[in-house]
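A reminder from the course coordinator: this example appears on the midterm review sheet, so study it carefully.

Given structure:
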């Protein structure tokens, strides 16, 4: 179950990267949003699959289900708005973590976004390239 999930997730990210290149000439922007963990229908399946998922994953999923923490879901929603209606509407071909990436400043760094490996499946992180997004 989890091997298939990880494989499908990787395929979708690579599909996103390729589709962004193929549709760029039409003004279409395509990105993959990694929302982080939050209570969802998928989360509900993890405790039942604890034998395969592992006890730590099952416990983390149960904690999400038992709580009312919507922070990650809200961050993902804000990221989608940033990419579609906001200043990030020209960002394309990227894998962006709603929780961990400094996405609200990406539009300020077109030279960074032009680099083919940054914010992609290859996940070259700013600190790996001495890139500073805090400026």
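Designed residues:
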């Amino acid at each position: 179950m989890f091997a298939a999930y990880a494989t499908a997730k990787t395929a979708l990210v690579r599909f996103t990267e390729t589709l962004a290149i193929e549709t760029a000439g039409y003004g279409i922007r395509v990105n993959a949003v990694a929302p982080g963990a939050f209570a969802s229908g998928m989360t509900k399946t993890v405790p039942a699959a604890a034998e395969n998922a592992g006890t730590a994953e099952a416990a983390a999923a149960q904690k999400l289900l038992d709580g009312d923490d919507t922070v990650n879901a809200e961050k993902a929603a804000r990221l989608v708005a940033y990419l579609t209606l906001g200043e990030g509407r020209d960002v394309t071909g990227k894998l962006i973590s709603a929780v961990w990436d400094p996405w609200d400043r990406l539009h300020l760094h077109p030279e960074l976004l032009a680099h083919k490996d940054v914010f992609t499946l290859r996940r070259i992180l700013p600190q790996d390239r001495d890139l500073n997004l805090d400026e």
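The beta strands are 32-34, 95-97. The longest strand covers residues 32-34.
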